[in-house]
Amino acid sequence: MPELKQEWTDKIAAWQASGLSIAAWCRQHDDNYYRFLYWRRRLLPPPPKRTGGFVELTFRTSALLLSCNGMTLHLERGFDPELLQDVLTVLRRV
Known about the structure:
The chain is an alpha+beta fold.
C-alpha cells in the first residue's frame, strides 16, 4: 500500500477509535478537515443509502369508549351499528 494511502488509513482508524467528531479529531491532530473527508470517502465504503418514504402505522386499539352523563359504552371492533342505534334511541328516552 502506498505510503500516503497507509497514512490516511491509519488516521481514519485512529479517528474511529477516538469517538470524536471528524472536526474535533482534525483540530486535535492539526489535520485539514476537507482533506480528511476526501480520504474517508476514498478509503471507506459508502454508508448505506437511506430511502425516503412513509412508514405504515397500524393501530391495535380494539375498542372505543363513549362516555356521556355517567354512562359509558364500550364498542369492540366489528360492533353492530344497528344495535348501537337502538341503544342510543333507548338512552335518549331515559
